[in-house]
Amino acid sequence: MHIPFLSAEAPFALLAMALSALVLFRRLSTLRRSLTNTAVFFAICLLGDLLAGLLDGMLQPRLLRWIRELAVFGEGLAVIRYLGLALSEIVLARLRVRVSGILVDILVIAGYVLWGFVRLNLAGVEFTALFATSAIVTAVLAISMQETLGNLLGGLALQMDNSLEIGDWIEMENLAGQVTDIQWRYTTILMRNGAKMVVPNSQLMRNRYAVICDHKSQPTRQRRSISFNVDLSIPPSRVIDTVLHDIQAATIPNVSLLPAPQCLLTSFGAGYVTYELRYWLIDPGPDAVTDSDIRRHILASLQRAGIRLALSDRIVHLVQQGKRHRKDVNARELQRRLDAIARIDLFAKLSDEEKLELARHLINSPFAKGDIMTQQGAVAHWLYIIVSGEAEAWWQPPDGGAAHCMDKEHLGSVFGELGLMTGEPRRATVVALTDVEAYRLDKAGFEKVIRARPELAEGISGLLEQHLAHFQTLEREYTQSKLDDLVGHRNQSAALSKRIRDFFGL
Where are the transmembrane segments (predicted)? Predict the structure, then answer.
């Protein structure tokens, strides 16, 4: 096949470029700029080849020959570039053979060099003198470019032995992030703060680095640890059980329960014990956010259990504002508790003195988002008063069917009153939708009030009957059982009144 005014190699190069471009431009949209530049380079070389043919007889034959040789050499470089991309991105990808980008570049460069030797041989160049000269030049370049060559060889080694791959999370000295690219000279690491760190490959090869999360492992996990201090007087088993129960029961984003979290006693300090909660992170990216969530859950669970975080024992001289300041603080907290009690219909018939007595018995019980506040079927003789935050209740049918979310208006600002007043097991599982600030009222805190006025049992039983009727209606709807209609309100209220009296021993 011969086209007038073109070299004998030009038609074959043009055919190869056209076929490979037809495939590459359609499938490699991300490389279109590079493909376009290569195509422009090929067109320029093809134009030079054509000009050499058109100017035949007008210029010196030696000059035209070198113009044509350079044009044909450029055409070959473009063809080798396209064929290399087609081989690595299309053929090997279909065969599911993964080849590092640096190795593909080496093969393409080897093709360039081989094509150069072929064209020089056809041009009649003497290779003996060429090799001698190139050896000297290579030695000089190797001495003057040791650092650059170290980076190049380091990048090649990283991809050849797969010790570090794109997508891995690594830690090196004070650097931590995800590998996004491995080039000849450097490796790009995306930091957690969004900055891109460029690390020379020779530095990676000389120093130690830890692959904290391999992108090929499914699922990817990284172990984290959170330390906290507790007073020496608190039994370690109580601290460990309290924290682990909360972390394992709560729904905390980005925390894996397999392997299970661990809470360990790690050291002793001046008046305190140091504990360490170890858990597994699913996505290493938002590590600080997840650590913050874990600390919130630890703090809330310890506060609910009446366990305070401890600091080292120190003697500090402070200027106190006196009893008046402490009295004002206590008064504000007591008024806050009274306001919470005033919003609850269950205690509407109590006198001001009785409400004040209840307020003094309230216990601060915060919950973090995702915490289980009450568990269906558990027996607990207390109720919760929500001051701020939201929660939702889930009811599990007796036959073990799917759990159903109850309407939030049925939850209100207080729940668990049946457990407080009758000792019944919990009717639903309540989960904190947000961080919840709540107070807890135990049986002992209400016992003094109801013993002084036993007639309160009749008034309270009417309100409890409405709550109980809602659960009974729910059971009929979802279990499709053939329960008889509810007994009249008077009989049910009387039965509830008797159970309240029996529970408090009235």
Answer: 6-25, 37-55, 67-87, 99-118
Residue 83 has pLDDT above 80, yes or no: yes
* DSSP H or E run through 364: strand 363-364
At 505, the amino acid letter reads G
Q: Which H or E run includes 227? A: strand 222-231
In a domain, 444, yes or no: yes
Domain containing residue 358: CATH number: 2.60.120.10
How many whole angstroms separate alpha carbon 132 and alpha carbon 128?
A: 6
Give how far Cα 95 sits from Cα of 53, 77, 90, 104, 108, Å: 43, 26, 9, 16, 20
Q: Are 404 and 474 in contact (CB under 8 A)?
A: yes
Structure tokens at 155: 């990048």
Q: Is residue 458 part of a domain?
A: yes
Asked if 197 and 234 count as a contact pair (C-beta separation under 8 A), the reply is no
Which CATH number does the domain housing residue 169 bear?
2.30.30.60
173-206: per-residue pLDDT in tens?
A: 777 888 888 776 788 888 877 888 888 877 777 7
Q: Is 59's pLDDT higher than 80?
A: no
Q: Note whether 20 and 52 are same-domain residues.
A: yes
On whether both 300 and 346 belong to a single domain, the answer is no
Task: Tell whether 340 and 472 lie within a shared domain.
Answer: yes
The proportion of the chain whose per-residue pLDDT surpasses 70, expressed as a percent, equals 78
Q: Is 330 exposed, middle or buried (0-12, 13-18, 19+ CB in 10 A)?
A: exposed
261 in a domain, yes or no? yes
Task: Find out whether 439 and 362 touch, Cβ atoms under 8 Å.
Answer: yes
For residue 56, tell me if it sits in a domain.
yes
Q: Which residues of 24-61 are buried (b: 16+ CB within 10 A; e: fewer)?
A: beeeeeeeeeebeebbeebeebbebbbbbbeeeeeeee
Q: Which of 304, 337, 359 is the last residue of a domain?
A: 304
**C-alpha of 482 from chain center:** 47
Which H/E stretch holds residue 67? Answer: helix 61-85
Domain span holding position 267: 222-304
The answer to whether residues 179 and 187 touch, using CB atoms and an 8 Å cutoff, is: yes
Query: How far is it, in rounded angstroms, from Cα 432 to Cα 38?
Result: 60
